[in-house]
Amino acid sequence: MLFGVSVEEKLVNLTDQEANLVFSIMRDLSGDFDHTEVRQRVGKTLLELLNADFFASYVWDDEKKIFVSCVQLNMDQENLKCYEDYYQFHDPITPTLQRRKRATPVSEVMSHDKLVRTEFFNDFLRKDGLCFGLNYFAYDRGANIGDVRIWRGSQKEDFTDRDAKIVDAIGPSFVNALIRAQNVDQLAPTLRFSQIKDDFKFTSRQAEIADLLVLGMMDDEICEKLCISKPTLRTHITAIFKKSGLNRRTQLAQCLSEKNHRL
User: 236 near 205, Cβ under 8 Å?
Assistant: First the structure.
């Protein structure tokens, strides 16, 4: 059974490899991960499942009317910054896709022949090699709480209705995982590790990194912010988990929350 209904009702002719990948995603979606890690894990497996090359995921900020909190795989960070600063406001496909409550190939809302003539394609998508796309937007009580944007390069074929059905089948569990992660995020404490670093025998740098992990920052973002290398960051994170007795990033936030409530 898959999400309360049989696989046969949701999908047609899954190969053994596809079925294994679908259930791998299901296991991840039932885990204790923060909002960022949920999207990262789903994205990594979806690329393999759909024979795709690129993944990006945003959260819609309804107050500011912009996409924020990017998670990406195989895309250039500078190019994505151009999207956030300019192209999301000159995007001919995403607003239409965002209104849909189902996985949709980009070519369903704009023909590929028309897309390749746009500024959005030539000055943004093509720079990273993106050619054929499929999007899914997760909703909770009418609010867009996260999305999945999957792309293939020009050497591959466009996404099919079958591909969309696979993503749709995973969709409800993706939504539930984001809701759980969002609830954890909303409980994020006002207390910071930098204020109680002596309780854990953290160095000042370790406390600073722990606070950034609680905020959901990616490793690349932390390295850039603190001007440190990835090996150095991993060494600090290992020390943070060893000293705190924890082993997941989400547990750091929970730990702070518990301490905050005891104050």
Answer: yes
27 vs 258, more confident? 27
257 — pLDDT class (breaks 50, 70, 90): confident
Residues in CB range of 39: below 8 A, 6 or more apart: 57, 71, 146, 148, 178
The pLDDT score that the predictor gives to residue 3 is 44
pLDDT at 5: 41
Q: Which domains does the chain have, with CATH numbers?
A: 7-186 (3.30.450.40), 193-262 (1.10.10.10)
Measured distance CA(34)–CA(70) in Å, rounded: 14
Question: How far is residue 249's CA from residue 226's CA, in Å, rounded to a whole number?
Answer: 18
Residues in the chain: 263
Tens of pLDDT, residue by residue over 28-83, are 888 777 788 889 889 999 999 999 999 999 999 998 999 998 999 999 989 999 99
- Beta-carbon contacts of residue 185 (< 8 Å; ≥ 6 apart): 34, 35, 216, 253
pLDDT tens by residue, 211-246: 888 877 888 888 988 889 999 999 999 999 999 999
As a whole number of angstroms, the distance between CA 189 and CA 253 comes to: 7
Map tokens 């995921």 to a residue: 57
